[in-house]
Design a protein that fits this description.
The complex is a heterodimer of chains A (about 110) and B (about 110). By secondary structure, chain A is mainly beta. Chain A contains no helices and 11 strands. Helix content of chain A is about 0%, strand content about 50%. Chain B has strands at about 5, 10-15, 20-25, 30-40, 45-50, 55-60, 65-75, 75-80, 90-100, 100-105, 110. Classes of the chains: A mainly beta (about 110), B mainly beta (about 110).
Chain lengths: ~110, ~110
């Protein structure tokens, strides 16, 4: 079983639509959770941290369900510039060090005009 | 925000040669840096945790004698791929931790011919 699982997509959605991604993780001892964004052939950039209480940053809302080991990301009023791969990331899973991040394979989002 | 640089951004080398990649934290000190590798259409995989002044911690399956890591100062970690082979061709990305967040370098694309 993969440690962090995501639907790879691609998700093709029209501009202005709302889109949601989900992610599950296998290790219940995981400590911290993040969504990163990665553009083609670039390094990942932190989009937002994810908390059990849920957090919102502009058009982006992230939610964590520890009981179900499930993380979500909601993007409202999607823009063309939101097209990217969204990586679900968990901290505290990798064996070599609790701070090493474990990445999902990413969900590819394409916003269409 | 925190900035991490990597050098070189792209390198092509012949099979059997060694390649050194540098990772620098430009505006902060990082006692811990991380090295990741990403193959095409795959997720980033943590290779090792680099600790300033001590030995690196390698993930299972990563050969420490092949991927030499040196973290000689609080702003510099190096990864040397020794006796590189075509299967080592990949996108190598470092990150540096500041507080609870990790900041990624722009990556180094290694091609071994």
């Amino acid at each position: 079983r993969k440690e962090v699982e995501q639907d790879p997509g691609p998700f093709n959605v029209p501009e202005g639509a709302t889109v949601a991604f989900n992610c599950t993780y296998s290790n219940s001892a995981s400590q911290s959770f993040f969504w990163y964004r990665q553009d083609c052939r670039k390094e990942p950039k932190l989009l937002m941290s994810v908390y059990s209480s849920g957090n919102e940053d502009g058009r982006f809302t992230a939610q964590l369900n520890r009981a179900s080991q499930y993380i979500s990301l909601l993007i409202r009023d999607s823009k063309l510039s939101d097209s990217a791969t969204y990586l679900c990331v968990v901290n505290g899973v990798a064996g070599g060090g609790a701070d090493g991040l474990t990445f999902g394979k990413g969900t590819h989002l394409i916003i269409q005009p | 925000g925190a900035v991490v640089s990597q050098h070189p951004s792209r390198v092509i080398c012949k099979s059997g040669t060694s390649v050194k990649i540098e990772c620098r934290s430009l505006d902060f000190q990082a006692t811990t840096m991380f090295w990741y590798r990403q193959f095409p259409k795959q997720s980033l995989m943590l290779m090792a945790t680099s600790n300033e002044g001590s030995k690196a911690t390698y993930e299972q399956g990563v050969e420490k004698d092949k991927f030499l890591i040196n973290h000689a100062s609080l702003t510099l970690s190096t990864l040397t791929v020794t006796s590189a082979h075509p299967e080592d061709s990949s996108f190598y990305i470092c990150s540096a931790r500041e507080g609870s967040e990790q900041y990624f370098g722009p990556g180094t694309r290694l091609t071994v011919t």
